[in-house]
Design a protein that fits this description.
By secondary structure, this protein is α/β, with parallel strands linked by helices. Helix content is 30%, strand content 22%. Helix 5 (86-102) crosses helix 6, helix 9 packs across helix 10 (310-318) and helix 12 (339-349) runs antiparallel to helix 13. The longest helix is centred in the N-terminal third of the chain and has 17 residues, at 86-102. Its main location: mitochondrion.
Length: 641
C-alpha cells in the first residue's frame, strides 16, 4: 500500500511557496548539503520550528525539494491524479465551464492553477473547455510556478497555448490589468504549505521544534509555554501529549486569495486531503520513492506534507468576506461532475483499455483509496457592493442616502443566497453581518452605523437618539431619527418596507408594515413620530419597497371578516384576482392609502413583487410554498454627516 494512497491528486510543484514562510538562509557554502546547512543554523541560532524546517526542505532557493527537479510520476516520489487518468482534469474542466456560465460568460477570464506540475491537469481541463469556442477564447491561462524544470515541461505540454507564469499569489491580481474574473484551481496545493505543531505537556502548550543531538536532527519542545492567543481552535481540555497543528501560511494564502476573488469576482476549487473539522493529532509525514520516510532524514530529498484543516481555511476565507464551504468528498464531487459517465464513454471508444480505465476510476473515487480522504472546497468572491433600487424623489434629495436591496450580491449560500440580512434566520451570523456591511458599503456608509429593529409586527415606533448603540435592536416596527451619520434599516420578505425623509427638517424614518402592523397603525404612527420631532407632513417623502402584491397574497374569510370590522370602508383592499373564488389582500395598496391618510402627498412605489420574483427578492410565502427557508432583504436610509 502506498503512503496515504499517495497517488497524489495534484501535480505538485515548486511554486508552493514563493509564499515565503521565512527562516530561509542562503549563506552556507554550495558544497554543504541542505541537511548540513540546517544543522549549522541550529548550532548557531538554536532549535527551529517545524514551519521553518518544512520551508527550508521544500523551497530552499538552491536545494529545496520543489526547486531542483521533477518529483512527479513513476520515477519520482509520487504519482498524481492527473497522471493517473485524463478524467480527473476533464472533470475539473467541466467545473470551470460551469463557473464561467455562473459568472455570466464574460469575454475574458483568467484560469489560474496553483501548482500545475507538468501541466497535465490544465491540459486535460482545456480540452473540455474547448468544446465551447467562446469559453476557450475568453480563457487566459495563468500558472503559479517557480520550478524551472516544471515550467519547461508545462510549456511543452500546453503548446501552442501561451500561459502566463507567475511566482507569487500577489501577481494573480496583476495579470489581466482590468480586474477580469478569476477561476482558480488548487489541486493538492495546501497540504505542503508549512505547519506549526503544538504539544500539551505538564499543563501547558509548547511548540514542537527540531534540534540536534549527537549531530542528528531530533524532535523537542520549546521550554517557553505558548500564550493562549496563538493556540489553534479547539484546544480546550487537552490530554497529556496531545498535538495540534496549524498552518499560518495556509490561512494567510487563503485570505489573500479570498481578497483577490472579492475584488475580481470568481470562484476557486481546492482539492486536497485532510479533515473537515479541526482535530488533534500528528499528520506530518514524508514520502520518498512512493514510501514513507523519516521526515528528519535527508532534508530536501523527500516530499513533506500534512493533512489540510479545511475548517481553518473556511474561517480564513470567510473572515475576508468570501463565501467558502466544503463541497463534498472527491468521490462525490467527481461523480457529480460526471466521471462515471465519462469512464463509460472512454471504454466504448477504447475497449482494449477497459480494465485500465476501471482501475483508474476506482483509484480516484473508491472510499478506501482517494475517494473519501480527499475533499473539495469552494470559495466564491463576494464584491463589496450589491445592487439596490432607489426612489427618484429621495435620490434627488441632498444629504440623504437610501436603497432598497434584494437578495443579490451577498455572501450567504443555499436557501439564504445571497444578501440575507436577518439575524433571526438560520443563516450563519458572520454571513449576515458581512451582508449588512456589503449593503452599507454599497451606499458608501459606515457599516458600524447601521441600526435595525427586532421586528414584531407591532405599531410601536422608537426614536434613535444620540449615543444609541447600534448593537441594541429595539423591539419595534418603526424608527425615526435626526442623528446625522446614523443609518436606519428595515427588513422584509413580503411585508412592506417604508422609508421616510423630511430633508428640510433633517429627519428620517423607517417602518415595517406587515398586515398586523399595518392594521394596527404602524404607518401613521411613524409619520406622527416624525412630526413630533419637527417634521412637516407636507415635506415628508415616503417610498414603499419590494413587497408581495395582491395576486399572490391569498387570505381567508376570517381575515376578511376581521379586516372589515376594523376598516368597514376597506372593501377595495379585498380583491379576487383572475376571478378566483378566494380572497386576496392588497397590502401595498392599503399601505399607500395609509400614507396618504397620514398626510403624505405622493407616496412612491419601488421594486416588483417579491413573490413573483424569487430570484431577485426573498419571499416568505414563496419559500413556504416550496417548503424551504428564506432570508430577509433590507432597505436603508441615512442622514449624511
Amino acid at each position: 500500500m502506498t503512503p496515504r494512497n499517495k497517488v497524489k491528486t495534484r501535480d505538485r510543484v515548486a511554486d508552493k511557496n514563493k509564499l515565503k514562510s521565512g527562516g530561509q538562509e542562503n549563506t552556507s557554502p554550495a558544497r554543504l548539503s541542505l541537511g548540513d546547512e540546517i544543522r549549522l543554523q541550529i548550532k548557531t541560532h538554536g532549535p527551529i520550528s517545524l514551519a521553518t524546517y518544512m520551508s527550508l526542505c521544500l523551497t530552499h532557493p538552491q536545494k529545496g525539494y520543489y526547486k531542483t527537479a521533477d518529483p512527479l510520476g513513476a520515477s519520482g516520489d509520487f504519482i498524481t491524479a492527473p497522471e493517473i487518468s485524463q478524467m480527473f482534469g476533464e472533470m475539473l474542466g467541466a467545473w470551470v465551464l460551469l463557473q464561467w456560465h455562473i459568472l455570466g460568460t464574460p469575454d475574458h477570464f483568467d484560469l489560474v492553477e496553483l501548482g500545475p506540475g507538468r501541466g497535465t491537469l490544465i491540459a486535460d481541463a482545456i480540452r473540455v473547455i474547448a468544446h465551447d469556442p467562446k469559453a476557450l477564447g475568453a480563457c487566459n491561462i495563468v500558472l503559479l510556478e517557480t520550478n524551472p524544470v516544471l515550467i519547461e515541461l508545462q510549456r511543452q505540454k500546453l503548446a501552442p497555448l501561451t500561459p502566463r507564469w507567475i511566482t507569487e499569489i500577489a501577481e494573480i491580481n496583476k495579470t489581466g490589468g482590468d480586474n477580469r474574473p478569476l477561476i482558480i484551481l488548487a489541486n493538492e496545493f495546501f497540504d505542503a504549505l508549512p505547519i506549526r505543531q503544538f504539544q500539551f505537556q505538564d499543563t501547558n502548550w509548547h511548540e514542537r521544534e527540531i534540534g540536534l543531538k549527537d549531530n542528528k536532527l531530533v524532535w523537542g519542545l520549546s521550554p517557553t509555554p505558548l500564550p493562549a492567543s496563538i493556540l489553534p481552535t479547539g484546544t480546550t481540555n487537552p490530554s497529556e501529549g496531545e498535538i495540534r497543528e496549524v498552518s499560518p501560511l495556509g490561512q494567510k494564502t487563503i485570505a489573500s486569495l479570498a481578497q483577490i476573488l472579492n475584488s475580481n469576482s470568481g470562484a476557486m476549487l481546492i482539492v486536497d486531503y485532510g479533515y473537515e473539522q479541526t482535530r488533534a493529532g500528528n499528520s506530518f509525514q514524508a514520502v520518498s520513492s512512493h514510501k514513507y520516510a523519516d521526515p528528519l532524514a535527508d532534508p530536501g530529498q523527500s516530499d513533506l506534507t500534512a493533512h489540510v484543516d479545511f475548517a481553518a481555511l473556511i474561517r480564513a476565507a470567510e473572515n475576508q468576506g468570501a463565501r467558502a464551504y466544503l463541497s463534498g468528498s472527491q468521490k462525490s464531487f467527481l461523480s457529480e461532475m460526471g466521471i462515471k459517465q465519462r469512464a463509460e464513454k472512454l471504454i466504448q471508444s477504447n475497449p482494449e483499455r477497459a480494465d485500465s480505465i476501471k482501475t483508474d476510476l476506482e483509484r480516484l473515487i473508491d472510499p478506501s483509496q482517494m475517494g473519501e480522504l480527499f475533499k473539495t472546497m469552494t470559495i466564491y468572491g463576494v464584491p463589496d457592493q450589491a445592487p439596490f433600487e432607489i426612489c427618484a424623489p429621495l435620490s434627488e434629495t441632498s444629504g440623504i442616502s437610501h436603497g432598497f436591496f434584494g437578495r443579490r450580491g451577498g455572501c450567504s449560500g443555499g436557501e439564504f443566497s445571497s444578501l440575507n440580512t436577518s439575524l433571526a434566520s438560520d443563516d450563519q451570523r458572520n454571513n449576515v453581518m458581512r451582508n449588512r456591511a456589503i449593503a452599507m458599503n454599497s451606499l458608501k456608509l459606515e457599516p458600524k452605523n447601521l441600526v435595525t429593529m427586532s421586528q414584531v409586527h407591532s405599531s410601536r415606533v422608537v426614536e434613535i437618539g444620540p449615543g444609541h448603540d447600534p448593537k441594541n435592536r429595539p423591539e419595534a416596527d418603526g424608527m425615526v431619527t435626526k442623528q446625522t451619520g446614523v443609518a436606519l434599516g428595515v427588513l422584509a420578505a413580503d411585508c412592506t418596507p417604508v422609508l421616510f425623509a423630511d430633508q428640510r427638517a433633517k429627519i428620517i424614518g423607517v417602518c415595517h408594515a406587515g398586515w398586523r402592523g399595518a392594521l394596527a397603525g404602524i404607518v401613521g404612527n411613524t409619520v406622527e413620530a416624525m412630526v413630533q420631532m419637527g417634521a412637516a407632513r407636507e415635506n415628508i417623502i415616503a417610498a414603499i419597497g419590494p413587497t408581495i402584491w395582491p395576486q399572490d397574497y391569498q387570505v381567508g374569510p376570517k381575515f376578511t371578516e376581521e379586516f372589515l370590522k376594523l376598516y368597514p370602508d376597506g372593501g377595495q383592499y379585498i380583491v379576487f384576482p383572475d376571478k378566483t373564488a378566494s380572497e386576496h389582500f392588497d397590502l401595498p395598496g392599503f399601505v399607500l392609502d395609509q400614507l396618504r391618510l397620514a398626510g403624505i402627498k405622493n407616496p412612491v412605489t419601488v421594486g416588483a413583487s417579491t413573490y413573483q420574483h424569487p430570484e431577485l427578492y426573498f419571499s416568505h410565502r414563496f419559500a413556504t410554498h416550496q417548503n424551504r427557508k428564506t432570508g430577509r432583504q433590507i432597505a436603508i436610509i441615512a442622514l449624511n454627516g
